Amino acid sequence: MADHDDMHLHEQLMLLALRDEKGTLESSASMYACALGGAILTELSLEGRIRISRDKKALVGLVDRSPLGEPVLDECLDRVARARRGARAVTWVQRFAGTKRLYHRVAEGLCRRGILREEEGRVLLFFTRKVYPTVDPGPERRLVERLRSAVFSDSTTDAETAIVVALANATGLLAIHFDRKELRRRKDRLERITERTPGGAAARQAVEGAEAAILAAAGATVVTTGG
Questions:
Q1: For the residues 107-121, what does the mean pLDDT come to?
Q2: What contacts 24+ positions apart, CB below 8 Å, involve 129-134?
Q3: Among 38, 91, 157, 168, which is most buried by a count of CB atoms within 10 Å?
């Protein structure tokens, strides 16, 4: 993949979901975990660690269990390696999205890179929580400009940017940074990016998995809040 500030796909999507100054998730970023799960699946495929069958089942199979040196990716790869039976890409996106402390672990990785810093934030005067305000805004600014160019022009888009656009669009993260009306006017462009993503089957299955996870979460909310 292209070296865009040397960030993994899931780290780029995390930056899109965070408020720069407060270091908390944007209120409209409730589906960020789905985006991260899709990004992890895609990256494992692009790195040659898993393969996704090309039939309708889109089953994930292990190719190489050697670690990549990134804790979150390696944990998710190990889960695939230890799975007793095959599962669909959609299922793995949901499993990866539910990884323990996923939000904090991805943010901590960005802290180690000097992009974020970890602080204790106060909630309701009595409680504290970890927040991750931005230290170096450069990587996110460059990321947003890449996405702007990809979405609002008709120029060729590199594989990594196309994957981030597709996942951010599917999970609502694009709408945090760009006007919703303008995004609707570029609907055809966004569909073309998703359909022609150079990442191939993995990226498309990751997007479908993220969308399915969103629908499942929405259904769970309806059941919980209903009679």
A1: 92
A2: 130/104, 131/22, 131/23, 131/24, 132/18, 132/23, 132/24, 132/107, 133/20, 133/21, 133/22, 133/23, 134/18, 134/20, 134/21, 134/23
A3: 38
Decide: 5 and 27 in contact? Cβ < 8 Å: no
User: Helix 159-170 to helix 201-225 angle, to the nearest 10 degrees?
Assistant: 20
Q: Can you read off the two tokens belonging to residue 95?
A: 């499993």
Distance CA 167, CA 36 (A): 9
Integer Cα distance of 31 and 137 in angstroms: 23
Burial of 213 (0-12, 13-18, 19+ CB in 10 A): buried
d(CA 87, CA 76): 14
- The pTM of the full predicted model, rounded to 2 decimals, is 0.87
In the chain, pLDDT over 70 holds for what percent of residues? 87
Residue 227 reports pLDDT greater than 70? no
